[in-house]
Amino acid sequence: MSEVGAVQIPVYNRSDPALWFIMCESTFKLAVPKPITESVTKFNYAVSHLPPEVASLVRDILMNPDATDPYTHLKTELINRSGESSQQEIRQLLSGEELVQTILAAVTDLTLDKAAESSDRIVEVTPVPMEIHAVNKNNSNSMEEKLLCEIEKLNARIDKLEFSRSRSPFRRNRSNQRSRGNSQNRNSSVCWYHRRFGKNCKPEKCVSPCNFQGNENGEE
Description:
Blueprint: H1 2-6, H2 17-29, H3 39-48, H4 52-55, H5 59-63, H6 70-93, H7 96-105, H8 112-125, H9 130-166, H10 169-185, H11 192-197, H12 216-219
Pfam families: DUF7041
Organism: Araneus ventricosus
Region (Disordered): 167-186
């Protein structure tokens, strides 16, 4: 009990876990009546002074301590995992809404319009993390491929419909006239539907302004 009463572990240092372990080890050496050298004892002291959120980083180690050297194992893993956790927090702080909220919170007398403008500027100058950029790029490429595929399908359906109409008697009788009309209107302002279907274009499909010959919209 005298050994327990003589040891005073320093408060955990969140910003520098490695330094905290060095301070703990110095405390272990000053313990009376003799220095603490047992790995299990040092492990128990260290664990008892970890804040709950820090202990959660090494929960698996606390639940199943290393049988050979639990203290050294805890020390190594906690330092490594704390560094990874800090990097994640920094990346989160420097990206998206977290950064915007942090900066705007420090600015006083900020109107709603100025806040919106400032937040847009912050997002514009904030670099996108590489992993997020890669995901966005992949999503963009995937969406573009889907759109191109749908456009190709739509064009195929339109061509098929136009081919079937071209085989009808009415279509054959009007083909020469439609061809002349199309050639005359290529150089004028003609909507896409009339360029595609000629006089077979339905009136409600026409997009103004359209100068297709015989088109009421173009004559107005």
